[in-house]
Amino acid sequence: MTQLIRTQPSKEVQLEADELIVTKTDSTGHITYANRVFMQLAEYPENELLGKPHNLIRHPDMPRGVYRLMWKTLQAGREFFGVVKNYTASGNYYWVLANVTPDYDSKNQLQGYFSVRRPPGRRAVEAVIPVYARMCQLESSHNKAAAPDASMEWLLAELEKQGHSYESFVLSLLDTNLTSGKTA
């Protein structure tokens, strides 16, 4: 398996503006499909991705509370939008706007999840960095079991003060309107 090599300080690598990462997972979050863009950016060959948990690329700067919110949203049958920082196999990192949706079969049975990721834009990244840092700080002051809920609750309370849900907050940060394809 590809080893995470951290011999040098990590650097940011970027998804090109016209590139999309596409992955599919089973209902437990294990990768069942990964497109070539994902494999190239994450620096993993297909045989090291298929069957592995998607959190293989989770960056430690990402608060677990964001993932708790994602799973709660998906388990409620709704799509999730989030700005996410991921690791590459060599220890570099990249940011994406993730859109994750439940994938149902013809009998409306959950088969897994379908995710499309694109570049989030610098404005979105700069806006979430201090929010995520605060969430990680909160998580470090709680036991492992309580940490994700504590940071998620803080996030939702802070966003509610601003009149936002997490989804509306994320979508308000985008440089591109996802529904029309026009620059905001």
Automatic annotation (TrEMBL):
Gene3D superfamilies: PAS domain (3.30.450.20). PROSITE patterns: PAS. CDD domains: PAS (cd00130). The keyword Protease does not apply. It comes from the Bacteria. SUPFAM superfamilies: PYP-like sensor domain (PAS domain). Keywords: Receptor. This is Aerotaxis receptor. It comes from Aquitalea magnusonii. The lineage of its organism: Bacteria, Pseudomonadati, Pseudomonadota, Betaproteobacteria, Neisseriales.
